[in-house]
Amino acid sequence: MSKQRSKDEQLKCDFSTANGRLKKIILFDLVKKLNLDICYRCNNKICSFDELSVDHKLDWLHSDDPITLFYDLNNIAFSHLDCNVKSRKYKKGVNNHPRKRHLNVRTKSGYKGVHVDSRMNKPYFFKITMSKDGKTKVFRTGGFATPEEAARGYDEQAVLLFGEKAVTNLVLGLI
Ligand SMILES: [Zn+2]
Questions:
Q1: What angle, rounded to 10 degrees, do the helices at 147-162 and 15-33 form?
Q2: Cys staple from 144: which of 20, 149, 156, 161, with CB 3.0 to 4.6 Å?
Q3: Which is nearest to 16 in space by CA: 118, 132, 169, 120?
Q4: Distance in Å, CA 74 to ligand 1 centroid
C-alpha cells in the first residue's frame, strides 16, 4: 500500500483534507488566544474552527491589484464562513462575474455537484472532482435525504478543498 493511501486510511479521510483541517484548528486556537475570534462581518463570536474563515476586507478578485490585496495582512480579517460566503453572494454586479459560467454545471438535481441514487433510502449524494499534480481525485459523500442537504454538504467540502475560490451552491444563489 502506498504511503499516501496509508495516511488516508489511518486518518479515515483524504490526507490533504486532514492537513487543511489541522491548520484551521491551529489557526482557530491562536485566533482565540489573541481574542480575535469576533466575526468581522457580523460582530458575533466565532465559536468553532469549522465556522472560521480567513476573510479579505476588500475583495482581491478582479481588483486592480489582486496580488497585493490578496497577501496584504492589513486586508485580512476573520469571519464566520457563512458571513464571508454571503458577503460575496450579495455583492453588486455578481451577475457580471466570470463565475457565472459555472451556472451551467448545475446538475439535474438543481444543485451543483448533487446527484441522486434512487436505490438508496437517503438517495442524494454529492461529488467533487479535483485534479492536482496531474492526478484526479473524487470526493463522494452520500446519505442525504434531500438535495438541499447534499448541496450544503457539497459547499462545505468545496470550501475545505478550494477555499475562497470555491464556487458553491450558496455563491451561485442556488440555496
Ligand atoms: Zn459572522
A1: 80
A2: 149
A3: 132
A4: 19
